[in-house]
Amino acid sequence: MDIRLGVVRGIQYGLVDKPDTFAPQVRELGAGLVRVFFYWSQLEPEPGRHDWSAVDAVLDQFGDDTELWFTLGAASPWGSTRSTDLLPASPPLDPAAYAATLRALVTHCRGRVRFWQCENEPCIALFWAGTAADYVAHLASFHQAVKSADPDAAVVLGGCPPGVFSTSDEPDAERDFFLQVIEEGRDAYDVFDVHLYGDPYLIPGAIEDVRAAVGDKTIVAGEYNGPVPTQYPEAFEQLAEVIEAGGIQPWHRLTVEDLREGRLTTEPVRAAMKRLYDRMAELPPTLQMFMTGCPPELEAERHRINADDLVLRNLLALSCGLRLTVCWQLGPDMPAPPDPYNLLQLMFSKFQLMTFEGGTMSVRHPGGDAFAELSSRLAGATDVRRVEVPGRPDAHVFELVGTGVEVAWLRPSTPGPPALVWNGTVLDARPQYTYAHRS
Question: Comparing 168-177, 199-208, 413-422, which segment has the lowest mean pLDDT?
């Protein structure tokens, strides 16, 4: 697999609003793959009636220059165990009926979609209302349906949150879920998808843990971005009341109407978020910068950190042998302004590479600029290799093999290490990456 940077369109496409055009933005960023979410409810709104309009809107926009990855959620008001048109997905009441729809869809797209993913982060109740055994059975049926319609397509295991396989003696339901799926469903997937959020310097260890668990399976990063508020202890402390009120699992069922009307949280969580916003000016800057309407200087600083993080995170992952990373996310699902009183909004909404202006996704954030430049620099690279600097474990230097380009930065520490002169450039402990041609 060639090195490729991709983007996720969002949590839904064509489900809440009519499908939009986003291929120009994907190409503008230099992304070579796009990941799109679809749900059973939109693909088969009534038993036996298929609707491929949103799927065709994607197929019509992209050619051979862009690979496609479709993530499918088995959420249906009439066909799934937990009745809903959005989240969580759940085991089909009639697995054969779901498999028939999936075969019809893959046949419709045959040769156009490289990756077919069975659910997203199924170890989390928000996304999958079933057991690990339920998911294994669902995955086996999914795999058989996809391969019967397009033998060359790759089946992707539902995305794995970060840190699941880290060594720990503590009980961990998410780790147990994935260990059971890997053991019992080993023959039912081709690609393992790990999501790389949190501290970027934990990425090499996380990939090593995943590789030990899945063996020779292909590993990709289907989601990543940063930073998140939980990376800053002083910021995370301020979220205690919100988390106690319901936190990041505020519902048992989320519908399209909830998404359309902005009902994304419970009243206790919403009230706690309002109290948090009432004292925004007193909060640590490392939390304020994630909040809607924060001071402009903090907004600019978060953009700077995000742009750096995007490059750091990719190079750390690619240097560990990954060949595909997919950034969350291209832009908002809808042009409507965000609801600030929602913890998920606080955690993830500022990951967008672009945003809407006048109903068109046309404004590129600094993270988008960093993504586009990295994609351009990686063109033609056959590998990413870390170059060790003797005596300086804080120095991160990476060679983009085949391009003559190196990227370097210093990892911050306290107290800060002395500056390092690299390729004629003085690096300091502020993790600003620097590109240069090898001298």
Answer: 413-422
| pLDDT digit string, tens, across residues 300-344 | 999 999 999 999 999 999 999 999 999 999 999 988 887 899 888
How big, in percent rounded to 5, are the helix, strand and coil portions of the chain? 35, 20, 40
Q: Is the peptide bond before 329 cis (omega within 30 degrees of 0)?
A: yes
CB-based contacts of 394: which residues, under 8 Å, 6+ apart?
410, 411, 413, 417, 429
Query: What SS3 class is residue 385?
Result: strand
Surface-to-core class of residue 142, CB atoms within 10 Å of its CB (0-12 exposed, 13-18 middle, 19+ buried): buried
**Architecture of the CATH domain 4-379:** Alpha-Beta Barrel (3.20)
For residues 39 and 15, give the distance between their C-alpha atoms in angstroms, rounded to a whole number.
8
**Domain boundaries in the chain?**
4-379, 384-437
**Number of other residues whose CB lies within 10 A of the CB of residue 8:** 25
Distance CA 325, CA 194 (A): 10
- Local confidence band at 250 (pLDDT 50, 70, 90 cut-offs): very low
What region does 423 belong to: left with phi over 0, alpha with psi -120 to 50, or beta? left
Q: Are 385 and 399 in contact (CB under 8 A)?
A: yes
Query: Residue type at 59?
Result: L
Phi first, then psi: give them for residue 409, nearest 5 degrees: -160, 165
What is the secondary structure of 122-168 as a DSSP string?
TTSTTTB-S-HHHHHHHHHHHHHHHHHH-TTSEEEPPPB-TTTTS--
- The model's pLDDT over 90-125, given as tens digits with 9 standing for 90+, comes to 999 999 999 999 999 999 999 999 999 999 999 999
Phi, psi of 59 (to 5 degrees): -60, -35
Q: What is the mean pLDDT of residues 273-297?
A: 96
| pTM (two decimals) | 0.95
Q: How far is CA 315 from CA 54, 66, 138, in A?
A: 34, 21, 34
320 in Cβ contact with 194 (< 8 Å): no
| Alpha-carbon gap, residue 13 to 295, rounded angstroms | 32
Distances (CA, A) of 369 to 144, 323, 349, 372: 40, 21, 18, 5
Bridge partners (DSSP) of residue 48 are none
